[in-house]
């Protein structure tokens, strides 16, 4: 099957320092209301395309997933929470326009109950995340930050959680290192 190459053996994500993860999605509450949830789904796709075209916005990687025939969501990995906030509030970007439209429709009572929207944001400090992949192409955190042999960070989850990069040390102690 075409796509990213499978990396043989066990690997882990090469993330250093803080990791920013956004889960954002929608739930179709009424299947027959395609004219309500269809535009939301297409807006999600359009925003992903917009972010993929402009790497300076800070989106490192994303994956579109489905939890059921009703629920669709995107897992996004960001360079920083500041870049995530900047995108969310940039008036020239599609997210700003799409959210304004959704808010107007909600205030007018035109979408209530047809489609659910949600997001969860996680800012995870180094030492509070770990990952392992076996015979996998780069996926998730590893697709966003790179993939290294598991031995570089530790074969056990507790060892990978204990790993500290120089980046993480600088973040913990401040820019001056002390």
TrEMBL record:
Renumbered residue ranges of the record's region Disordered: 150-178
One Gene Ontology molecular-function label: monooxygenase activity
Pfam families registered for this protein in UniProt: Monooxy_af470-like (PF13826)
Keywords: Monooxygenase, Oxidoreductase
Biased composition regions of type Basic and acidic residues, renumbered to the chain: 159-169
InterPro entries, per the entry: Monooxy_af470
Name this protein carries in UniProt: DUF4188 domain-containing protein
């Amino acid at each position: 099957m075409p796509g990213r190459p499978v990396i043989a053996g066990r690997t882990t994500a090469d993330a250093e320092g803080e990791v920013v993860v956004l889960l954002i999605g929608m739930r179709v509450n009424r299947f027959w209301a395609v004219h309500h949830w269809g535009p939301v789904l297409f807006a999600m796709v359009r925003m992903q395309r917009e972010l993929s075209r402009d790497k300076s916005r800070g989106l490192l990687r994303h994956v579109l997933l489905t939890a059921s025939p009703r629920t669709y969501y995107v897992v996004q990995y960001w360079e920083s929470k500041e870049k995530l906030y900047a995108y969310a509030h940039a008036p020239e970007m599609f997210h700003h326009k799409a959210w304004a439209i959704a808010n107007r429709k909600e205030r007018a009572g035109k979408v209530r109950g047809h489609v659910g929207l949600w997001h969860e944001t996680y800012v995870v400090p180094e030492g509070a995340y770990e990952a392992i992949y076996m015979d996998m192409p780069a996926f998730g955190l590893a697709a966003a930050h790179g993939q290294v042999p598991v031995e570089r960070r530790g074969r056990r989850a507790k060892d990978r959680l204990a790993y500290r990069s120089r980046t993480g040390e600088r973040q913990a102690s401040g820019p001056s290192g002390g």
